[in-house]
Amino acid sequence: MNSYAQSADNYLAQRVLGASPEQQAALLMEAGQLFLGKAIRAMEQKETAQVARYLGQVAKIVNEAVIRLNLEDGGEVVQNLMKIYSWWTSELFEAGTTKDIARLRVLSHHMGQIREAWEQLHQKNLKAASASGYELRAQVV
């Protein structure tokens, strides 16, 4: 591995380790979109081995997203995410089998929407934490 690649890997590792759970979920979706884009390009160029490799990466990412869900406390939102992630897994398999680029593009779009939702939740939590910290400081003074 060259020094640039190693630096990029270190940066990514630090980015993930320092991220909130919501940011980590958004990063998973970002990675999923990245690999879907690579799979689409490989499919267009008829590079079957690469397609399988990239779709395998996306499947691992979706599985990681499932593992991170809080099944005990998540309620209806988590149940809905489980259904979405299960559908994504089925679509990945079907799109890979039928070489359906349109299906992969739809998946990428959906991942983008879920990514945005996680990012918005992170921002909302930051604002709430900031407001609560402000209230605490105001009471101390």
Give the overall average pLDDT.
87
Q: Could you tell me the CATH topology label.
A: Four Helix Bundle (Hemerythrin (Met), subunit A)
| Broad structural category | mainly alpha
Oligomer: single chain
Please describe the biggest sheet, giving its number of strands, its sense, and whether it closes into a barrel.
Answer: none
Principal-axes shape call: globular
**What are the secondary-structure elements, in order, as H or E?**
HHHHH
Percent of residues in beta strands: under 5%
Outline the secondary-structure elements.
Blueprint: H1 3-17, H2 21-44, H3 48-67, H4 75-98, H5 101-140
Helix pairs in contact: 2-3, 2-5, 3-4, 4-5
Protein architecture, described:
This protein is mainly α. 87% of the residues lie in helices and 0% in strands. The protein has a single domain, classed as Up-down Bundle (Four Helix Bundle (Hemerythrin (Met), subunit A)). Helix 3 runs antiparallel to helix 4. It is globular. The C terminus is likely disordered.
What descriptive keywords fit this protein?
single chain, Four Helix Bundle (Hemerythrin (Met), subunit A), 141 residues
Structure summarized in a few sentences:
The chain is mainly α and about 140 residues long. It contains five helices and no strands. Helix content is about 85%, strand content about 0%.
